[in-house]
Design a protein that fits this description.
Layout (H helix, E strand, L loop, with lengths): L2 H7 L2 H44 L7 H18 L7
Helix pairs in contact: 2-3
Length: 87
């Protein structure tokens, strides 16, 4: 039985579960906004930092940090974008 059917029949327990899932999705979508900002700044700053580290002889790339944040953002967005239909 789909969530629409359960809501139309008045399944209170399922309604509460659905509300909790929507609240969780909204919290995660807010986190995605923050992660997007951090990912953008990380991408902008990683190139000069990487160049400076390479010139100083320390081969430590910082770009994987930005990629990791970007991957987190995309995974969460794919999981919770269904909530966006009501916005």
């Amino acid at each position: 039985m789909s969530w629409c059917d359960r809501l139309s029949t008045g399944d209170v327990a399922h309604e509460q579960k659905l509300r909790e899932e929507i609240q969780k999705a909204n919290r995660e979508l807010k986190k995605i906004k923050k992660a997007s900002k951090i990912s953008g700044w990380s991408a902008v700053l990683s190139l000069p930092v990487d160049v400076a580290l390479l010139l100083s002889g320390i081969p430590v790339p910082t770009s994987p940090v930005g990629f990791g944040i970007h991957a987190y953002e995309k995974i969460k967005a794919r999981k919770y974008d269904w909530v966006m239909f009501g916005r």
